[in-house]
Specification:
This protein is an alpha/beta fold. Helices cover about 50% and strands about 10% of the residues. It has two domains: about 35-175, P-loop containing nucleotide triphosphate hydrolases (Rossmann fold), CATH 3.40.50.300; about 180-245, Helicase, Ruva Protein, domain 3. Strands 2-3-4-1-5 form a five-stranded parallel sheet, with helices on both faces. The radius of gyration is 20 Å and the shape is elongated. It comes from marine metagenome. It holds the Pfam family Hda_lid. InterPro entries: AAA+_ATPase, Hda, Hda_lid, P-loop_NTPase.
């Protein structure tokens, strides 16, 4: 009974913290584990699936080039955690409107904090001290901190030595970009998830004319989804050429 009340209190506290966060962050509904094509990244996928199944892990660092799937995996795990009643938050550091480090206040009450592109705040003293404090508080609360970057923690220019040391002690995974065949499978999977029929000829055309990483390909697919809905046209090669001007 005591444990149940403690767990309930922590869960309610997590929901309260989530409600107070002033960021309009919405998880991509298409970023699910089921739509992630692992390629050579099965080990890291298995680790995150283990966390989503209830296994606890404390600090993970996932790095790799743009479009390799870092944001997809973070959002997939956050969605899975929230669906399972374990409060989680996804915080992207790249893009307009970077919030102040105060956004991290109280997040130790959550089960999972996922910080995307953490290198964007490296060298910012206020952010680094806030991250270091959150790191220590999550360890105390047995929460999980998951960070991504384009490089491993050992070469990120953190100015706070204690934070650099903590980051270096994380479980580190590198994401490998998908090969051509796997990227084609992933592209068609994302199209299917959106309810789009993407013929082979159209998929190959996109692969030849759009930057070959999943971020760029999915961005193009999103534009085509909207245009197809408005015009009620299928994703033929001429239609793709007109919409994307490629």
């Amino acid at each position: 009974v005591v444990y149940f009340l403690w767990a309930l209190e922590n869960w309610l506290c997590g929901l309260e913290i989530m409600a107070q966060i002033p960021l309009p962050i919405r998880l991509d509904i298409h970023a699910r584990f089921s739509t992630f094509v692992a390629g050579e990244n099965q080990v890291v996928l298995n680790h995150l699936l283990g966390i989503s199944a209830g296994q606890r892990a404390q600090v993970l660092w996932i790095w790799g080039p743009s479009g390799s799937g870092k944001s997809h995996l973070l959002q997939a795990l956050c969605t899975s955690e929230n669906d399972s009643g374990r409060p989680a938050i996804y915080l992207p550091m790249k893009g307009p409107g970077l919030p102040g480090p105060g956004v991290l206040d109280g997040l130790e009450a959550l089960d999972l904090v996922a910080i995307d592109d953490v290198e964007q705040v490296a060298g910012m003293s206020d952010w680094e001290h806030a991250l270091f404090a959150l790191y220590n508080e999550l360890l105390t609360q047995e929460g999980c901190l998951l960070m991504t970057a384009s490089r491993p923690p050992s070469v990120i220019a953190f100015s706070l030595p204690d934070l650099a040391s903590r980051a270096a002690g994380a479980v580190v995974y590198r994401l490998e970009p998908l090969g051509e065949d796997a990227a084609l499978v992933a592209l068609k999977e994302h199209a299917s998830c959106r309810g789009l029929e993407l013929p082979d000829a159209s998929a190959h055309y996109l692969m030849r004319h759009v930057e070959r990483n999943m971020s760029a390909l999915c961005g193009s697919l999103e534009k085509l989804d909207v245009a197809s809905m408005v015009s009620q046209r299928r994703l033929t090669v001429p239609f793709i050429r007109d919409v994307l001007e490629i």
